[in-house]
Amino acid sequence: MKTSRLIRNSKNAFTILEMTIVILILLALMKIGLFSSAKMDEWKLGRVAAESLRSVYAAQRMYLADNPTVAVSSLTSTLILPYLPNNVTVMPTVRSLTGATLTITVNVSPPIINNGSGVAYDPSGSTTDSLWDVGP
User: Are 78 and 87 within 8 A, CB to CB?
Assistant: First the structure.
């Protein structure tokens, strides 16, 4: 009688194989969650960069509307600053995906993010996605 009771109880328990499969599934779900979280952080950086560029672009357009004889190529940050919203006293900067601080070039239209060597920084690779750029 005791042996049949032990056999019956052992059939209700989890096997090592079942526990291993559950743990592997949980690890896979955690990995997917962490990966999507990293992509979300990249997207947020792109959105912040796009918002900064749009505010600089709007300030650039307002300055040029007030000063129609000024060429875009002669614009500087100090000329644009009074036209930025919220009484900003310094030109906005942007953080890259690697954490570097990048500047915004205002002497081209639309303004671009400069990676330090004069080349436009746009890790998305598209000028129409509204991330890291103002767009055409």
Answer: no
Angle at 79 between CA 77 and CA 96, to 5 degrees: 20
pLDDT for residue 4: 54
**End-to-end CA distance of the chain, in Å?**
83
Gap between the Cα atoms of 60 and 81, Å rounded:
9
| Domain boundaries of the chain, sorted by first residue | 2-114
CB neighbours of 104 closer than 8 A, spacing ≥ 6? 52, 53, 56, 91, 92, 93, 94, 111, 112, 113, 114
Determine phi and psi for 112, rounding to 5 degrees. Answer: -125, 160
- pLDDT for 16 beyond 80: yes
- How confident is the prediction for the chain on average, in pLDDT? 82
Dihedral pair phi/psi, residue 94, rounded to 5°: -130, 145
